[in-house]
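ok here's the first one, seq then struct tokens
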Amino acid sequence: MLIERTFSTQDVIASDRFDCWREHVLRTYAPAEVHSDHVANFAASQRIVTLGDVQLWTMEHPSMTLSRTEKLIRRSDPELYHLSLPLQGTMRLTGFEHEAAFERHDLVLHDTSRPHLMRAITGHGERAIQGTGLLIPRKLLPLPENAVDRLIMRRLPGREGLGALLAQFLTQVAGDTSSYRPDDGTRLGTVAADLLTALFAHALDADGSLPPETRRHTLVLRIRAFVQHHLHDPHLTPGAVAAAHHISVGYLHRLFQQEDHTLAAWIRCQRLERARRALADPAMRDTPIHAIGSYCGFTHASDFTRAFRTAYGIPPREYRHQAARIVA
């Protein structure tokens, strides 16, 4: 299981809940002014999952406002990008004479180093705000900060393209951390940073203005995101990947010469890792092993079994039995 922390105001008496929430925000995010019309009984909870230097969070709370002023920024600034994915309720952000509204499944970027006012508002028939997102150090993203600044408070759709892939990643990891090992956290943090970088690069359409090395890196990230989205396809070959990105197979191979694995080897590793997680997932315990292999892009069950044994030292069936005993 991944390393995670949980916090709930239900653990204290009703009159103290809002003050405890404000203190929690200060400790886990940054100094901020927090206000709400539900102070008398502020029912809120949060989970924070550690993914190396990246933090994945889920949150549920009543309507509230949160502001970072210049004075509070001077007091303390963790220099984080804050990406939010509202799942229930709406969000309004105000900063630098600009205001934007965001609905469910929009991806929203703001920055702890910039003054801003965030209003989270419940909709008709909704009792609480719900959402998930990332806290990620600015230094982890390979894009120039002045380029990323153009995306602050800009709507990034979470239902299509790279935004949908990132949103799916966030909700899937947050939804079940039990199928991962603690040492998977850093790797998942790298995946989160890569997906976020790919989304930003796509949104900026920055290929013509970024330095050559950054352009190469962002293209590799886009290719990796494309592969993750198509792992189920048995026809996912270097030729298919190159065609989808309008580059030659030769150029594709040159791109991956500077990576740890060739593209074909990386695709195989990702398929096997997806299969390993599926085999360890209690929700998929009744799914036939050959179906999991097919879901991960292996056409023949024997090829899947042989590849899995080579990678992990035991066949898929035995791995599933071991994982089930650990969960039990």
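and now the second one, same deal
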Amino acid sequence: MNVRRLIPSAALAGAVALAATALTACSGAADAAGNKDGKVSVLASFYPMQFIAEEIGGNHVKVDTLTKPGVEPHDLEITPKQTAQLAEADVVLYLRTLQPAVDKAVGQAVAHSGLEHAVDATALTKLEAHGKPGHGEEGHEHADGDEHAGGHSKGDGHDHGEAGEDPHVWLDPTKYAEIATGFGAALEKADPAHAADYRKNTSQLVGKLQALDTEFEDGLRNTATRTFITTHSAFGYLAERYDLDQEGISGVDPEAEPSPARMKDLQALAKKDNVTTVFFEALASDKTAKTLAKDTGLTTDVLDPLEGITDKSQGADYFEVMRSNLKNLQKALGAK
């Protein structure tokens, strides 16, 4: 195992410490009496949070999600039924800035409904801005100096939060492990009777994420090109982690029409950097990707941002889809 790539113990310890602040108005153990089966009710905002909750909670929790399979999480609107779910949940796990409707609903549940354990995943790791914040769909023409520190996350058109922070932290296994560690600690506080099991499950999940990180590091170490083009600029953390250069076509909305100038820019870049593939996601239209590919003689393939699992996904869970992403990246980048 590549020790250099293992998640630093200091970072994991920090995630545990941050779990205390991520718990909003936490005042003692959660009372799961509301569940007839005696399980702790956990409400997750969308799939990556749901997966962590299920893996760590195991048989002691009942996990529901606000974002059903096939629903675009960025555009989620909270229903009255879901508002009631938030008020009744023992623990809520969400990722601030990704879903504004969820952020607002959680805040209201904490203030007015007695929700004691609201865990914000962004407090368990460090969010970063990839690309210049505030640019719209035509804001991708990158000039010198438009690179993130490390220089491999250009062209990300996200504009989340005041600082343009990119919320897609789960696509970096090391950051996802920090969230898992922090949530595990929060769940121990919410349900101390099963703390030992949560601690064991957290350790196992972190270990699997460390192994996945090593697979990506080894699998992408030697490639013919370091640049990939994608319709959905969700892969800034992954690109930075593995020394790649993400070039997004249309920013946060994978189905938005890019400007002619951007398409021309990408055609030139594809030729310059020996790009072979334009990636699209399984849950969105591949129209834009196919248009660019046709104009440049490139192929298309799937790179899944893992915002949800459906029957169209290239895998049944987080790990399977991430390994499919790795395989597709290796092929596109010419891994040796």
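notes on #2: Residues 195-219 form the longest helix (25 residues). Strands lie at 40-44, 61-65, 91-94, 118-120, 128-129, 165-166, 227-230, 245-248, 277-280, 299-302.
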